[in-house]
Amino acid sequence: MKMQHFEESIYNLIVETSTNLPGDVRRAVARGRALEDRATRSGLALTTIAQNIGMAEQQISPICQDTGMPTFIIHTPVGVNQIEMKKDIHSAIIRATKNGKLRPNSVDSLTGENSGDNLGAGTPVIHFEQWEEESIDVRLILKGGGCENKNIQYSLPAELEGLGKAGRDLDGIRKCILHSVYQAQGQGCSAGFIGVGIGGDRTTGYELAKKQLFRKVEDVNPNEDLGKLENYIMENANKLGIGTMGFGGEVTLLGCKIGVMNRLPASFFVSVAYNCWAFRRQGILVHPATGDIQDWLYESGTGISVEGEAAPQPVAEPVGVAAAERTTSGVVPEDATIPAAPAIVSGTGEAASDAAVSGNGAGSEPAAAASAGSGGSREIRLTTPISEEDIRSLRVGDVVILSGEMHTGRDALHKYLMDHDTPVDLNGAVIYHCGPVMLKDDEGWHVKAAGPTTSIREEPYQGDIIKKFGIRAVIGKGGMGPKTLKALGEHGAVYLNAIGGAAQYYAECIKKVNAVDFMEFGIPEAMWHLQVDGFAAIVTMDAHGNSLHADVEKDSAAKLAQFREPVFK
């Protein structure tokens, strides 16, 4: 018998997962904010994250534009028709994609063609298991590609950078986990959450690691040894100094969950699933006859402040997605903007006398339009196209507020431009590493979510593209490597780090979609020409050979080496 309301229940689950960060995750973010100095770059990033969480909930729009690979783990009673359930899940996925709650992310691995509806071979991921309960348990995680790329698997024994030999014991596992946090740096949108799987084979080890992400942030591991290890990692991973977005700081990790399973005698795998701060997972109990939602499995984020000031008030069921509006409890309106930097600098590089405008809501300056920390960082307003003189006046730590036209460009476009011309003049232009969520109506295209993607994927191309087209600024997250840094100096350009996952925050800065090219690449990979105002990002690589990312990595490597000696014997 078909469950009449199952498709609607799955649609509501998808929307809730994509747009409303759960309560336990919000409290973890609040604890992170309490530990970080809000006048620093990492403090600024966490403030922007806090604002974005509330905006996504209020607007019922994706928290992050990369809605990832929808992964379902479903437990069903014996006799439930899993074939019909899968059909309903596919229908709900198509609807959520059409309505802008999911970005079309299913790409043919051989042709590069985007299916456009998030369906295709292997997508979405659906794991069914039977159990002896009466209800159906459906859990969903939306884990973006940026953090998925920072997953890592170790085969013990191994020699680890900075930590030495990691053996087949609890202390070797400890070293692997610390190293996994170090190697991610800010490219996985730290501060993050990690799931760790000990044992299994290469496939089941990763599955176990990802399943740990379905545990509640505040739970206690029933295995005493693993509980101690989780606590150790949470205390010491934050001593690496990587910080939010890899900017350096006190908060690098917000959660660590570890599971264990048996292994083969010849194999000893430690698998780590790295999840960004935008930890989007939710679950529902479903009536096996009607398909109606009986209960929500994780506390709703509605009413949970990312300030951590209010006592947690569990909400039995999230606000319905059909509601006209949501509460804005996730927003922190009192301090979503940090006081302006010491000097405002005009596009000519001269200090301006007027102070930065502070505030919230429509028409206000964004939260990132603030001091990037101590050390005389400046706030600088630039309008595209940008001159080389203006670019060479910038230094690492400056906050740049951009207006004018910028152009999105990701993997497919960068590869294409290596051998072809561009449809628009990019001399003095800004390239934004972004795959937005877009919807089209009778009035044209509209941006629903538009945060940055991980830039390091473009490292093989970026320096050549800067030289070929005269690009003055590249916006992304996580930083880039030595080839790009060299090109910035030689050709007069900068790298600007936007706040990863802040998709609603940056969508507010995009005032118009001027045009689009290369739609054959699919919506995320197309070249969108966007008119922006007040788009704020931090200079983390400048035209003078300076790289914040290289400095933080070097510093964190030295700190990692402090954990070389055995702890668990």
From TrEMBL:
It comes from the Bacteria. Residues 363-372 have a biased composition (Low complexity). Its EC number is 4.2.1.2. The keyword Ribonucleoprotein does not apply. It is an enzyme of class 4 (lyase). One of its GO terms (molecular function) is fumarate hydratase activity. Residues 354-379 are annotated as: Disordered. SUPFAM superfamilies: FumA C-terminal domain-like (SSF117457). It catalyses: (S)-malate = fumarate + H2O. Residues 374-551 form the Fe-S hydro-lyase tartrate dehydratase beta-type catalytic domain. Residues 8-282 form the Fe-S hydro-lyase tartrate dehydratase alpha-type catalytic domain. Pfam families: Fumerase (PF05681), Fumerase_C (PF05683). InterPro entries: Fe-S_hydro-lyase_TtdA-typ_cat, Fe-S_hydro-lyase_TtdB-typ_cat, Fe-S_hydroAse_TtdB_cat_sf, Fe_dep_fumarate_hydratase. Its cofactor is [4Fe-4S] cluster. Keywords: 4Fe-4S, Iron, Iron-sulfur, Lyase, Metal-binding. Catalyzes the reversible hydration of fumarate to (S)-malate. Belongs to the class-I fumarase family. Homodimer. This is Fumarate hydratase class I. It comes from Paenibacillus silagei.
